[in-house]
Amino acid sequence: MFLADDGFGPEVAAALRRETLPAEAHVADFGIRGMDLAYRLTEGYTAAVLVDAAPHGQPPGTLSVIEPPLDDFGDAMPEAHAMDPVKVLALARRLSGGAPLPRVLVVGCEPLVRMTGEEPDVSVGLSEPVRRAVAEAVPLVTSLVADLLARSAMGEARSAMGEARVGVGGEEAGGEAAGVGEEVSPR
């Protein structure tokens, strides 16, 4: 069980499991199993879409698509039992033995409530703006996966697609797939 808006990724994964996805796409909820995700990233996939609550100074519920640099993790020390995406990518880089990691896109949702462990009360369940963002994230993730699969088929993907870590499917309602670095649901 995730507290507050940290449950965004698992909620999107659950919603994606109810969708019809391309055979090449896989949905997996890694929870806090950073080691499992790090090892999976070294299994030869060409792309992975990670979905997570990601504070980045936007209004709560805002979705952003981020492509982290995979060659520079700064001071990030790998952790086997944590789910900080930067640390998981640093661990995957070390586990890969120098082999390239898949292209990684992060669909991040700005949380309203993020538990720090110092709160007097536990907050269970998503805040209202993040709950609404789950429904918006499903078509966003599916459009990203469709685009990654198309690029892979055309040989344009940096490392050829095989898996969407969490998500797959169509275009955002009324428009085209969001681009990397684009905020897609400003509130």
Automatic annotation (TrEMBL):
Family that this chain belongs to: Belongs to the peptidase A31 family.
Xref: Gene3D superfamilies: HybD-like
PANTHER family given in the database record: HYDROGENASE 1 MATURATION PROTEASE, HYDROGENASE 2 MATURATION PROTEASE
GO biological process: protein processing
Keywords of the record: Aspartyl protease, Hydrolase, Protease
Protein name per Swiss-Prot or TrEMBL: Hydrogenase maturation protease
Higher taxonomy: Bacteria, Bacillati, Actinomycetota, Actinomycetes, Kitasatosporales
InterPro entries: Pept_HybD-like_dom_sf, Peptidase_A31
